[in-house]
Amino acid sequence: MSVFLHEIRSELKAGVYRPMPVRERMIPKPGTSRRRRLGIPTVKDRVVQAALKLVLEPIFEADFRSCSYGFRPCRRAQDAIAEVHLFGSHTYEWVLDADIEACFDNISHSALMDRVRRRVGDKRILRLVKAFLKSGILTELGLEEETAAGTPQGGILSPLLANIALSVLDDALSEDWGTLMGTRSQRKYRRRLGKANWRLVRYADDFVVMVAGTQDDAEALRTRVAEVLAPMGLRLSEAKTQVVHLDDGFDFLGFRIQRRRRRGTRRYHVYTYPAKKSVAAVKAKIRAVTHNPGTPLGAVLSRVNAILAGWCNYFRHGVSKRVFSYLRAFSWRRVVYWLRKKHKGLTWKELRRRFCQDKWNVSWLGITLYDPAKMTVSRYRYRGEKIPTPWAA
Q1: Where does the chain cross the membrane (predicted)?
Q2: How far apart are CA 218 and CA 213, in angstroms?
Q3: 3-state class of 35 per DSSP?
């Protein structure tokens, strides 16, 4: 390993390092028949990208806006959901729910490098960044293709470069927020004049703009967002971009966000539920694990437990208790049906005696089927400007 790292260091110091083309891998996109391209760098290129990210990330983190949450240290999807919940609870009723079409594949190299040059003056670093952008793609058919635009998904550096490109949107809308709507009195004054207020919440290439105003105000912002993204070579997806009212609800980062009347009262609250697509996705994973009767029971339980625990941990900050109880029953049925398929000669009574703890909980060699209903549900508190960074003094 030391020899390998020494060779990389020597090539970088001599200025002769050249990244290899990334290897193409096509994976299915969830919920569609289309496929998404991944670009897998070599181990050597990944090491250099990781080192380059350590240099660039603190520089650009100093400039990134607080409305951006994706692929950033100490920030997570729950922070973005909490901000949407906060503004949705304060008269921001219209939502521009937007998605950028093939964001990673269409970023303009020249526009991206212009933004990098504003903060980085070292020409060696700039050459490295440009070299990774222009490294090319080795397709699944073994053909080499040039990369005229985009930064391939799958690389360590790509998420940071995508955030640098999309910061043009953050800067445009956050500047409005800071100058025109920065204080409560400014926002109230604008509303008295019939003007709209808005707030951008972005997670990578998925973002929403919460609007306190009318539907026309939200539609006007849609046009403005498209104009801001155009110089970066990006455009909004017509199929996934829509203007909706908060009472109708929308999906964002796996959650269904909707304002509803609280049961037994006349007051309306904003609720965050696991979206139907998210529930369908976790059910499909459990079905796939419990499909082959030749798999050992311990392996099935371990895999199902990992799927359920990870999924429930992500959605435990929403209104998820009923969904967790449903998943408990669903996963138990799938595992029990799998056991009956695997041991066709066993009666139900004998099967429960051998594989069910306390006659119901499926268990084997100390591994018990995970119970999602026991996951504690709690509200995730909005942190806003209090989110720390690893480079804070």
Answers
A1: none
A2: 8
A3: strand
DSSP state, 241? -
Q: Are 98 and 211 in contact (CB under 8 A)?
A: no
Report residue 13: phi and psi, to 5°.
-65, -35
Kindly provide the b/e burial profile for residues 164-173, where b requires at least 16 CB atoms within 10 angstroms of the residue's own CB: bbbbbbbeeb
| Contact present, 112 and 148 (Cβ < 8 Å) | no
Where do we find the tokens 């400007």? 385
Query: Which of 359, 338, 217 is closest to 288 using CA atoms?
Result: 338
Segment 183-200 shows an average pLDDT of: 92
pLDDT in tens, 81-111: 999 999 999 889 999 999 898 888 899 999 9
**Cα gap 59→119, rounded to integer Å:** 7
Tell me, letter by letter, the H, E, C secondary structure of 248-291: CCEEECCEEEEEEECCCCCCEEEEEEECHHHHHHHHHHHHHHCC
Task: Provide the edge-to-edge strand list for the sheet that holds 367-368.
Answer: 356-357, 361-364, 367-368
Cβ(61)–Cβ(167) under 8 Å?
no
Cβ count near 383 (within 10 Å):
16
Q: Which two tokens stand for residue 120?
A: 């980085």
CA distance between the termini of the chain: 34
d(CA 311, CA 289): 15
pTM above 0.85, yes or no: yes
pLDDT at position 359: 67
Per-residue pLDDT of 367-379, as tens digits, reads 899 999 999 999 8
Pairing type for strands 137-138 and 22-28 reads parallel
Nearest to 280 by CA among 299, 256, 298, 258: 256
